[in-house]
TrEMBL record:
Protein name: MFS transporter
InterPro entries assigned: MFS, MFS_dom, MFS_trans_sf, Tet-R_TetA/multi-R_MdtG-like, YfmO-like
Primary residence: membrane
Organism: Mycolicibacterium arenosum
Localization per record: Cell membrane
């Protein structure tokens, strides 16, 4: 699995940096609120604008990539992220940061969807192995992001924004030189393709599951720093542990559980464990020790879920992988967009415990939806056909040389 073309490693490195951008901001949410006299719900809009634009933009990633090619799409996404992150760091108001985070989300959409499709099509081996490699990059980026954000954030809340911009500039250079020009698909993708893909009940069910699961995921990510009430460095260390747990289970544990028990069964049980973790956080919100421990424990379940649900998406419908990824990402980032803002409002106006109860309810419902959809996903554990493997190898040779 680890012997891959240079194109795969170039995109994987850039993916690490891209995913650092998610966790990098987490430790500075409270410092931004304190320095700019903002409420938790206002600061949570940094996640909402970012995720909302990213979700909608996922619908156009295939259209863009099929017309200008994957490499140019990746570079365009990286360039937009550099600009959005840098201008966020220069802003003096919360709404200014929210606006530039929206631009940042557009860049991330162009990059992430294309990166996943590029790694899956370029990597040697099976789709499952390619996704594990992608999730390894995701896990590493998410793990390191909060730590770097905490270090830079302890100097200034602007530091992580400038850090992302600088790291993305490095990723841009690496992608330019290590990723060869990639051919455009034979058929140009249309805006309607992702919606047509969602007519497949399996893909639609997985999309709804991901939307609800991400509601709980981003409630934890965006709201927990406020009841923790710690400095940027301390929060960065806690979420660094969360990221390490996520990276470990996504790469090491998820494939073993999948092989032994089957994808859908593992996903459903895993979602129930994540629900239980959010319930403990809801009950023990007043205890910093409980919250910190549960954040790290949640990383174990999130890592398993991320790997297996991504692989399920790639096999849930007989459509092009880029189209399936765009349709799925559009739905999952919908939950990610609403959750941070709603959690902030509920925590401010009603109870600091309530956001975690709502997040737990959403993840529990995700498990119910996936259980109800399981009959449409019976083929997700079937091995790749010889034709599929030959197509992947042919693509890897074309892109990797």
């Amino acid at each position: 699995m680890w012997r891959q073309p240079k194109a795969v490693w170039a995109v994987a490195f850039a993916s690490v940096v891209a995913f650092m951008g998610i966790g990098l901001v987490d430790p500075i949410l409270k410092p931004i609120a304190d320095n700019l006299d903002a409420t938790p719900s206002q600061v949570s809009l940094l996640f909402t604008s970012y995720m909302a634009v990213m979700g909608v933009a996922m619908l156009i990633t295939g259209v863009v990539a099929s017309r200008i090619g994957p490499k140019r799409t990746l570079l365009l996404g990286l360039l937009i992220i550099i600009v959005g992150a840098g201008l966020s760091g220069l802003s003096d108001t919360v709404m200014g940061i929210v606006g530039w985070r929206a631009l940042w989300g557009l860049g991330n959409a162009l990059f992430i969807a294309t990166a996943l499709a590029t790694i899956v099509s370029s990597a040697r081996g099976s789709v499952a192995q390619a996704i594990i490699l992608y999730e390894a990059a995701l896990g590493l980026g998410i793990a390191v992001g909060p730590l770097v954000g905490g270090v830079l954030g302890s100097i200034s809340w602007r530091g992580p924004f400038f850090g992302v911009s600088a790291l993305m500039a490095l990723a841009l250079v690496v992608t330019v030189f290590l990723l060869p020009t990639t051919p455009r698909p034979e058929r140009a993708t249309t805006l309607g393709d992702p919606f047509r893909a969602l007519k497949h009940r399996g893909l639609l069910g997985v999309g709804i599951t991901a939307l609800l699961y991400n509601f709980g995921f981003f409630t934890l990510l965006a709201f927990t720093p406020f009841p923790l009430d710690m400095n940027a460095h301390q929060i960065g260390l806690i979420f660094f542990g969360w990221g390490l747990a996520l990276a470990f289970t996504s790469v090491v544990v998820a494939p073993r559980l999948q092989h032994r028990f089957g994808t859908i069964r593992v996903l459903i049980v895993n979602l129930l464990f994540f629900t239980a973790t959010l319930v403990v956080m809801a009950v023990g919100t007043d205890s910093k020790a409980v919250l910190a421990t549960c954040v790290v424990v949640a990383g174990l379940f999130i890592g398993v879920n991320n790997t297996l649900i991504t692989e399920t998406v790639m096999k849930a419908a007989p459509v092009e992988r880029g189209v399936a990824s765009a349709a799925y990402s559009f739905m999952r980032f919908g939950g990610a967009a609403v959750a941070p803002w709603l959690a902030g409002v509920l925590g401010e106006r009603i109870s600091v415990h309530l956001p975690f109860w709502v997040g737990a309810g959403a993840v529990l419902l995700a498990a119910v939806v996936l259980f109800a959809t399981r009959k449409h996903l019976t083929g997700v554990d079937a091995p790749e056909t010889q034709t599929d493997e030959l197509e992947d190898e042919a693509t890897a040779v074309t892109v990797g040389n």
